[in-house]
Amino acid sequence: MGAGKSTVGSILAHKLGYHFYDVDSELEKCCGVSVNLIFEIEKEDGFRKRETQMLEKLLSYPPSIIATGGGIIVTSQNIQMLKQAKAVIIYLKTDIKQQLYRLRKDKKRPLLQTNDRKQKLKKLANDRNHLYESIATKIVKTGHQSAHKMATIIMKHYL
pTM of whole model > 0.85? Predict the structure, then answer.
């Protein structure tokens, strides 16, 4: 969350001539409502089921760049689909301080609707980082680089 998946993915797709898909955006288009509303009505379980269906659909498309939601790896079926995909999976790893800075004005992310964002991000990192690392083809540490710089680094060194 806040690593730059959507922004960097979009730039990479443009530079490489691929289509770009963001799982959350595609879900919003398909459902006609925001991810927040899906979470509110269907809770996280309902959202994760929809997310899995969307991931399966997007992985069936011709080669493209897909930005997944930060929690895509909490579902074992998603992990299996990602492992079986003939794809380069890049994990944009960012530290909590950077996440807090990038997400400081964000009001849209359901899991960050809490009084202690730092603690929530620490818990998510603790629960998820090892899962990201287990499926990643490449791990790219993000920092203060712009999204364009990150895309260039990924293209030059990892693709």
Answer: yes
